[in-house]
Design brief:
Layout (H helix, E strand, L loop, with lengths): L9 E4 L6 H6 L7 H6 L7 E2 L5 H11 L3 E6 L2 E7 H9 L10 H4 L3 E4 L6 H11 L3 E5 L5 E6 H23 L4
Parallel strand pairs: 1-5, 2-3
Antiparallel strand pairs: 3-4, 6-7
């Protein structure tokens, strides 16, 4: 598939397990990435691994994003970011019009499934210093993408709702 480096994908799945019995006993259900994806546009901006870096950069500018999921068929095979352009194309003085995405994309990527808890996704992002997590189904097909901004907005909204409920309780307005 293209020239240069072979496409070897090292995908790591983020565990979505909850502590079995403890999860069913919890008073409040644990929020999952499925909850976040339900409130988002389901379209994920993606690029074919055989596209040129220039085509990918144009796509990034068109949609005002700094991150693309690289999709081969229906499955993610890597990610491509502004950082990949800077480190692997600009600094290496490669021609973006001739260099293919699969030659410079990041192939070691973390993915998760819709059942992954918001807290676990946040922890993975923090510990691995990443800002985006592709979400895949049981067949490893891309179903969405969550960013650290999505997690922050979700948590802020949940905190606002909690404050509202507490104020209503404290002031007797239920």
């Amino acid at each position: 598939v293209g020239r240069g480096r072979p496409m070897m994908v090292q995908t790591q799945f983020v565990s979505c397990s909850r502590s079995g019995e403890a999860a069913s006993v919890q008073r409040f259900s644990m929020a999952t990435l499925k909850d976040i994806l339900a409130g988002k546009d389901s379209k994920v901006i993606s690029v074919d691994p055989r596209a040129t870096v220039m085509e990918a950069a144009v796509l990034m500018n068109q949609y005002r994003v700094g991150f693309l999921v690289v999709i081969d068929g229906e499955r993610p095979v890597g990610v491509f970011s502004e950082r990949d352009i800077l480190r692997r194309v600009v600094v290496a003085r490669l021609d973006p019009g001739k260099t293919l995405v699969n030659e410079v994309m990041t192939t070691e990527m973390l993915v998760c499934n819709p059942g992954t808890s918001v807290d676990e996704a946040r922890s993975v992002m923090k510990n691995r210093r990443i800002r985006h997590l592709p979400v895949v189904d049981e067949q490893e097909r891309l179903v969405g993408l969550v960013s650290i901004g999505d997690l922050n907005a979700f948590n802020a909204n949940a905190q606002e709702q909690t404050l509202h409920v507490l104020e209503e309780y404290i002031y007797g307005r239920t």
